[in-house]
Amino acid sequence: MAAALTVLVTGGAGYVGSFTVRALQQAGHEVVVFDNLRQGHRSAVCVPLVVGELIDREAVATCFRRWRFDAVIHLAAYTSVRESVTDPNKYVVHNVGGTIVLLEACLRHDVPYLVFSSSSEVYGEARYLPLDEAHPTEPTNPYGATKLQVEHYLRWYDAAYGLRSISLRYFNAAGAALDGSMGEDHRPEEHLIPNAIRGALGLQAFRLTSPVVATPDGTTIRDYVHVLDLAEAHVLALEALRQGHPTDVINLGSGVGYSTRQIIELVQELTGVRFPVERGEARPGEPPIKYASYAKAERVLGWRPRYGIEEIIASAVRWHTRFPHGYPD
């Protein structure tokens, strides 16, 4: 077994981050979380937690002085496509500017590896399907643009300084711990599956925010990947870097697309509740259809998704049933 590492996880109190922390622990690594708790939850963290903003150089420097990190997994970011369209400056300042501060600290403290949480939003409108890593990158919203800009910086930082990285281009993270003990808790929540489940449980009215698009049922088609599978991929990416893999970008998806209407119907079927569907304000900046090729992830990381869409939704139902109001903080 490879030696344990001390790993900094930025955004480790958030949805994917909290699951990644546990996957790292299960692999035997020591973990520290840096998070501003604006989207994350203190009660989701089971390791040392530093509360701060990545754009705060002194807060980041203090964290790096306190621990000697062998690697960084960088998930901290603002992630709302809708908000990025109305407030792009926030996304540039925090998603790009915060990353630069983090990279400066990595260089100063000789951290050799970084795994970056990127996004399928870097692709924009699909020219062909499934989307592979060679597909042109033409983001249609500022959130995706910030993720792509960081990917560019990471390549340059490797060429100039030898900081190697793997950028993981997630498709739609979904699901919860299989026992319902951890899950998705954004405030406000913009994602389809949790909002549909909350509609089924009578916690809120469900509003359809998919724009009308040219797909068979007129709603957007997306690729959903279980958060447990995503967490595992971060551990595998870190190990690939340790084994000498060069700076790279890798898709994480299931290879299958489901329309918004199909997801609503699956939630209704699995919960047994035919909740009403109201039309809400359409989300801007949304490509009509996206689903991934994960062939490269399988080839480079030995990764493939373990959980299908019904398991994703069923686990999320357990979480929202056990914790209808999310984490207690």
UniProtKB/TrEMBL annotation:
<dbReference type="InterPro" id="IPR001509">
    <property type="entry name" value="Epimerase_deHydtase"/>
</dbReference>
<keyword id="KW-0413">Isomerase</keyword>
<dbReference type="GO" id="GO:0033499">
    <property type="term" value="P:galactose catabolic process via UDP-galactose, Leloir pathway"/>
</dbReference>
<dbReference type="InterPro" id="IPR036291">
    <property type="entry name" value="NAD(P)-bd_dom_sf"/>
</dbReference>
<dbReference type="GO" id="GO:0003978">
    <property type="term" value="F:UDP-glucose 4-epimerase activity"/>
</dbReference>
<dbReference type="InterPro" id="IPR005886">
    <property type="entry name" value="UDP_G4E"/>
</dbReference>
<comment type="pathway">
    <text>Carbohydrate metabolism; galactose metabolism.</text>
</comment>
<dbReference type="Pfam" id="PF01370">
    <property type="entry name" value="Epimerase"/>
</dbReference>
<keyword id="KW-0119">Carbohydrate metabolism</keyword>
<comment type="similarity">
    <text>Belongs to the NAD(P)-dependent epimerase/dehydratase family.</text>
</comment>
<keyword id="KW-0520">NAD</keyword>
<feature type="domain" description="NAD-dependent epimerase/dehydratase">
    <location>
        <begin position="7"/>
        <end position="253"/>
    </location>
</feature>
<protein>
    <recommendedName>
        <fullName>UDP-glucose 4-epimerase</fullName>
        <ecNumber>5.1.3.2</ecNumber>
    </recommendedName>
</protein>
